[in-house]
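Hi L.,

You mentioned the student needs an example of a multi-chain input paired with its predicted structure. This one should do, with 674 residues in total across all chains.
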Amino acid sequence: MLKNDLILKAARGEKVDRTPVWLMRQAGRILPEYRAVRAKLSGFKELVETPELAAEVTVQPVDLLGVDAAIIFSDILVIPEAMGLTYEMVEKKGPHFPNTISTHKDLDQLKIAHPEDLQYTIDAISITKKELNGRVPIIGFAGAPWTIFSYMVEGGGSKTFSKARKMLYNDPELSDKLLKMITESTISYLKAQIAAGANMVQIFDSWAGVLPPGHYNQFSLKYIQQIASAISEVPVTVFAKGAYFALKEMNDVSCRTVGLDWNMDVEEAKKLLPNKTLQGNLDPCALYGSFDQIEQEAHRMLDRFKGHSHIANLGHGVYPDTDPEKVKCFIEAVKSY
Amino acid sequence: MLKNDLILKAARGEKVDRTPVWLMRQAGRILPEYRAVRAKLSGFKELVETPELAAEVTVQPVDLLGVDAAIIFSDILVIPEAMGLTYEMVEKKGPHFPNTISTHKDLDQLKIAHPEDLQYTIDAISITKKELNGRVPIIGFAGAPWTIFSYMVEGGGSKTFSKARKMLYNDPELSDKLLKMITESTISYLKAQIAAGANMVQIFDSWAGVLPPGHYNQFSLKYIQQIASAISEVPVTVFAKGAYFALKEMNDVSCRTVGLDWNMDVEEAKKLLPNKTLQGNLDPCALYGSFDQIEQEAHRMLDRFKGHSHIANLGHGVYPDTDPEKVKCFIEAVKSY
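Structure written out for the whole complex:
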């Protein structure tokens, strides 16, 4: 069915003719064609919740940049919203939750999210599937329970996430209850994404890096593993930003691919994760360089991953002010390696 | 002269009767006695620039919390200010530089800072010295050149520091020039702090963690080493937050002590840095726990560092909403171990 399944082969650890490449945040942010769609709408959330348009911006980078996979345009915060905690996306500031979770009683306002509560994303995947017509695979995604928990407790972003981390010390029982609800919601959501056509799924643990190793095992990795082990239909990728201390532990997670951020030492990761495919990890700021520099940096990165199953990507979502021509240069540099 | 020189002995790798303990950000933030001094002033900078008051809040934690060292109350951003780039401290938002550095021409407005431009901190150290009367050592400090560079280019804090990191790719020559100016300014500033009475100095590389390993060596560690090797008078500590990837390279830096953040694996650090004293690294959020929990967490941390020269501390500055009684509990737990 798929004309290009390089990324699935690489994820399964199979031999590939060349390294597949895509970019986190490729849908949205950098393309003028995306901004044109976005400009017609009231806001970011309207785009997330309008399947035809979400599918349109999902397909754009496949057409315009030549990436080897489409990632569905959505947001990790659709899960807390489907659980009963609505959020606003404040322009240039980020997400804001008017209500947050701080007591056991607050859990009463929450429910386990059902896929039908997130029908807009499921529909967006179905439409994308039709529009792509087998050109490249579709990546589905969700936030890791710890990252979603952080937003639900903090009410938004934070420098230290000290409010969310405080709860882990003060009320591990409440923390566990909430993390379990998020985990259960996420499993059925990812399964619905797969049923609608997602060929692989990625779990984003954006705030992994704020936890000490012991807490990371207890309050993040445990729930990631529950999700990963529940998904046997497609390959799973885990990207735990900043959790270099947990790389070795990723061996015990039922995922095929581990994402590396741009700080992570590739040699070390290869040694620690001999049987996992690695994804990443060019510094997103390398795309501010000249075309020659970008080609050189991309090739150097590929040199580092040599001898290991690899999916090329940046080590973070592409930054909003990146020139799309520079992104194309990066993609071409990987393809021509 | 010094009645308690535990921290200096530990820094030099000598045997100590018990592990010395202090907290990053112990001066300021948490004590009501600090807030009382602060409330009488127009703002944070007035306190930094008034030697008698800076000395007063420097001594407070020695009297009130029982720490084994005083760290001079100041800010790492006094260096860019003394170089010609003034900043404002915006309440609840952080520092803001009205002018920033983006071109070679912008360097013309800068000069190498001279210690007399920072006389207020030097005087604060002299007054602190008198007031402490040998009770505990005084720690002087400065920001690492990369961290100071980041502020001077970005104009304030940032999630990604992509503007500062962009310059490293686009104009390594300009980056080097600015980093050299900061380095030179910092060396003479730290030497003046030592001449005034600082018994040890710490270099804070707060934004170490945003650089890929290659850039960290080239644009941060190189200049830290220039500073560390210029200071032979007193022991030097380097705290590079988030730079787990550079722990091994710290062996090549002429510092006695390496600070660990709360994400860092202590066992790993002990192996990588057999001849350095290690400082840290309790999760600052552990101080939100109960008194029993804090004692337990502090003792567990001390267990981990066993067999290695160690200065007890948190893995980050103490968070502003921490109960001073909980801080005392942490300090007592270290002392009674």
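You could point out the following to them. The longest helix of chain B spans residues 172-196. The longest strand of chain B covers residues 138-143.

Best wishes,
N.
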